[in-house]
Amino acid sequence: xxxxxLQPVGVERKSGIVELRKNFSKADxxxxxxxxxxxxxxxxxxxxxxxxxxxxxxxxxxxxxxPAAVVQHILWECRRLCIEVVLIGECHLPATRRNAGxxxxxxxxxxLDKPLAGSVE
Length: 121
Fold this sequence. Notes:
Blueprint: E1 7-14, H1 17-23, H2 29-42, E2 43-50, H3 54-58, H4 67-80, E3 84-87, H5 94-110
Parallel strand pairs: 1-2, 2-3
């Protein structure tokens, strides 16, 4: 928010299920929820970009035996706060990070009130 005005688009990125699980721990949950509320309050189009695929986000591990519960909770919180969730795939290599960034840029531009010049009719 600048001078009391909502900015058009804001993005928070999470690097996958391990980071999400950490954010839902007792020690970090209140801070994470405050950050989500701040994102929702500060931007006309708040976006949570999740790095991963549905398969990688829902794959149980030794430390996260029920990742579905974590994913369901984050989606519930985002829906409640009117935050759009976008999966941007695995971003381990520079090329995939660039592609994810380009995709997010296009997604952010789609949130603007007017279509871009030269857009498809």
